Amino acid sequence: MIDWYVILFLAIVLLIFHMGEFAGHKDTAAYVRLSGKNQVSTGTVSMLFRFLTGTFVFIPVYLTASRGYMAGLILSIAGVAVLLWFSKKVTQMNDEFAAFQHIGALLQERIPNKGRAGVYLMLFLAGSEGLLLSTALANSFMKTVFSIQPIWTSSILFFFVFVFSGMGGAGGVQKMGRWLLFGFFTGITILPVATILYHGVASIHKRFVQLPGASWNGGELMVASLLFMVFTAGHLLVYYLISGDLLAVKLTRLKATIGLTAICWSSMPLAVSVIVVYLMSRDGGTGISGLLNSMGHAFSTPLLYVLAVSVLSCLALSLGVSLHHLTGILIPLFKEEQGAYKGYGSSFVVCILFYGASFAVDFTTVFIFYIHLFVSICLPLWLLLGYRVRWGWELSLVLIVSNGLGLWVSFTSEVLTGVSVNLGISCTVLFFLFIRKIRTM
């Protein structure tokens, strides 16, 4: 068992060390993004903040623990393939976006007033994924492994994130995020190496071969990997629209930025899977609950500190990026001269709302909801960015109906079946709508 006050002390030291980055922004632009062109390191780090935290770490871990190590490996490869595809398409999307100052101008040109509200709502819900899911994961992790009640975990986590992201803005996310990312990478480097050195390669291999490769058959694995590719593409498009990071990266460095992100992302699930497989083979526990229960006595005290710091760094960064994106969506609603200060207020309100919601929602339900949301939003956003077609209220209606039917099937049957139904409905209806609009242009 660890003394979690040591983790709290480290967090306070980080906040004090970067106190100069928090608040005091001269204008809205300084709050939303860093001034000047992003260098390759800044652009790469911004993508790593989004794709090495929260849900993207949790899904490979969850599938490795619940469906076998082959399921986590195959889905990780599928995610890398989507990142590489996106690196080839992002230049074309930047050319389409160049004529618009911000996302609101793009949506105003492509969607009339009646249809924009639904799309804004979908983007807001998609941007809130880190706030809800990462908080739920942190609460579950700290309570199961270290017997710390969720109210303490959520309170400290939201206060820390509000300071470095809500008040720090882009500068706080970049400066504090680098330390949090460093803590996470340190953890997923030390833990697998220490485990192998302590128990030996032969012992780990013996336990490894005793585990089932995958509880899904080949067809189910193929469907799951396809759906995860759509899920990842939806995440990328939402990130592209609401962050603006990739618009600021120089054209010659764009592919390198996303390519480096793909390399880092592909190595992360492998390192995490080593830890997951070791814990599963050690105690024979399956699923996330069995995995968490085995953590408390599977590692020595120094490694427990490394585990806690790496996990909390990953989840805190996910919360911070999500809060910054939501505040970036809300700030344009305020007057320019008061936008930064009202941004502090809006980020505080968002923190309070999601802090309360984190205790009221069921984690499994919310997790399935966000899977459906990102799968269904992928094609509409791709059509919005790639084609100069004017959409109306039907775009929002398709998203709401497909999500509703997909969620109903997921909760009454199986998750994969529900997500497949969601994707099938939205693709079919939007295809016919797109053909009709092309003919009338």
* Name of the CATH class: Mainly Alpha
Name the CATH homologous superfamily: Sodium/glucose cotransporter
- Main beta sheet: strand number and arrangement? none
Poorly predicted spans: none
Mean pLDDT: 77
Which descriptor suits the 3D outline? Answer: globular
Instruction: Tell me the total number of β-strands.
Output: 0
Examine the coordinates and then state which fold CATH places here, giving the name of the CATH topology. Answer: Sodium/glucose cotransporter
What is the H/E string?
HHHHHHHHHHHHHHHHHHHH
- Which radius of gyration do the C-alpha atoms yield? 21 Å
Total of DSSP H or I helical runs spanning 4+ residues: 20
Number of domains: 1
What does this protein structure show overall?
The protein is an all-alpha fold and 441 residues long. It has a single domain, classed as Sodium/glucose cotransporter (Up-down Bundle), CATH 1.20.1730. Helix content is 84%, strand content 0%. It contains 20 helices and no strands. α14 (251-283) packs across α15. The longest helix has 33 residues, at 251-283. The model has no long low-confidence stretch (mean pLDDT 77).
Task: Tell me the layout of helices and strands.
Layout: H1 4-17, H2 28-32, H3 40-51, H4 55-67, H5 69-97, H6 103-110, H7 113-127, H8 129-146, H9 150-167, H10 169-199, H11 201-209, H12 218-243, H13 245-248, H14 251-283, H15 287-298, H16 301-330, H17 339-360, H18 363-386, H19 393-412, H20 415-440
Helix pairs in contact: 1-9, 3-10, 3-14, 4-5, 4-14, 5-12, 5-14, 7-19, 8-9, 8-15, 8-16, 8-17, 8-18, 9-10, 9-16, 9-17, 10-14, 10-16, 12-18, 12-20, 14-15, 16-17, 18-19, 18-20, 19-20
